[in-house]
Amino acid sequence: MKAGVIGLGAMGHGIAANLARAGLLAAVWNRTRSKAEAFAGEHGVAVADEPATVAAAADVILVSVSADNDLLGVIDALKEGLEPGKVVVDTSTVAPDTAREAAERIRATGAGFLDAPVSGGPEGARKGSMVMMIGGDEAVLDRIRPVLDPICGSANFMGPSGAGQATKAVNQIMVAGIMQGVASALAYGRGQGLDLEQVIRVVGGGAAGNWQLDNRGPNMVHDQFPPGFKLALHRKDLGIVRDVLAAKGLSLELIDRTLADYDRLIESGHGDEDISALYRLRCSELGSG
Ligand code: NAP
């Protein structure tokens, strides 16, 4: 079984590299061609001129692009290379309705579609340890597991089309709460004059320990917030949650607060930073900047 990758950003690059190392990667495409050429130079794989060429060269086509309209554009652009038996696996984070729309557009080609958003960040993509949450047809998932094995620690079937994205939204709400907690707590710690590196080591070993503290806490210690997970992307994910809730006349304070925080950071030019840049706001509120 051969794989192709469309989108070589922070996540797609790691996914493609692991597939190349496993000897499964047939071709890659990236909107900015220079990134695909740099990847090809490193891994000795073909650079496709368009998404449909990747679809024609591979049995399983993995997609990792930014947002809903980017995904639908890529789906339309790759359809021509699809045929029955091929499977498109979208690892981007988009709305459940967008996943169902993508599945519908692909159905006409006879190929399969799985919504398969991931968690674990660029580190997880690099290490092949991502957690994948999958919606679609379980038999299709089971058939392509040999391609997913090198890129994730677990590939979990969650239900019909859209169920993977709905599960990812649960993850993203949790990330918002945890990051708000870590940023507030470390801003408080800085205000108390504590050695934050030691605080992270000590607190990280107790009941408040968590992935964001271990992996993004050091960003806060050094006041540097390289992506990571760009806060503009998390803003997009929380916007999906807000819209799903609003359609039912509901809202969550955590989501509204975090969206407002991200808007302030984006307005002041920090949209391409990691979500740990929330620390900037908490420090300025607590006078510990
Ligand atoms: P990224 O580093 O910003 O990369 C985005 C990729 O999408 C780039 O390859 C970009 O191409 C491509 N792209 C954007 N718009 C496009 C379009 N209209 N047509 C074709 N390609 C397009 O983002 P990332 O961090 O890899 O995230 C990718 C997806 O995974 C997002 O949906 C994100 O929410 C999700 N995700 C991210 C993380 C994380 O921690 N970073 C974790 C889990 C899930 P160019 O190179 O030309 O810009």
Supply database-style keywords:
289 residues; three-stranded mixed β-sheet; six-stranded parallel β-sheet; Rossmann fold; binds NADP nicotinamide-adenine-dinucleotide phosphate; N-(1-d-carboxylethyl)-l-norvaline Dehydrogenase, domain 2; 2 domains; alpha/beta; globular; single chain; 13 helices
What would your notes on this structure say?
- The protein has 13 helices and nine strands.
- It is α/β, with parallel strands linked by helices and 289 residues long.
- The protein has two domains: 3-160, NAD(P)-binding Rossmann-like Domain (Rossmann fold, 3-Layer(aba) Sandwich); 166-285, N-(1-d-carboxylethyl)-l-norvaline Dehydrogenase, domain 2 (Orthogonal Bundle).
- The strands form two sheets. A six-stranded parallel beta sheet has the order 3-2-1-4-5-6, sandwiched between helices.
- Helix 1 (10-21) runs parallel beside helix 6, helix 4 runs parallel beside helix 5 (96-107) and helix 8 packs across helix 11.
- It is globular and about 60 Å long.
- The protein starts with a strand and ends with a helix.
- The structure holds NADP nicotinamide-adenine-dinucleotide phosphate.
- The site of NADP nicotinamide-adenine-dinucleotide phosphate has 26 residues, from helix 1, helix 4, strand 7, helix 6 and helix 11.
- Residues 7-12, 30-32, 35, 64-66, 70, 73-74, 92-93, 118-119, 121-122, 229-230, 233, 237 line the site of NADP nicotinamide-adenine-dinucleotide phosphate.
Write a compact overview of the structure shown:
The chain is an alpha/beta fold and 289 residues long. It is built from 13 helices and 9 strands. Strand 5, helix 5 (96-107) and strand 6 form a beta-alpha-beta unit.
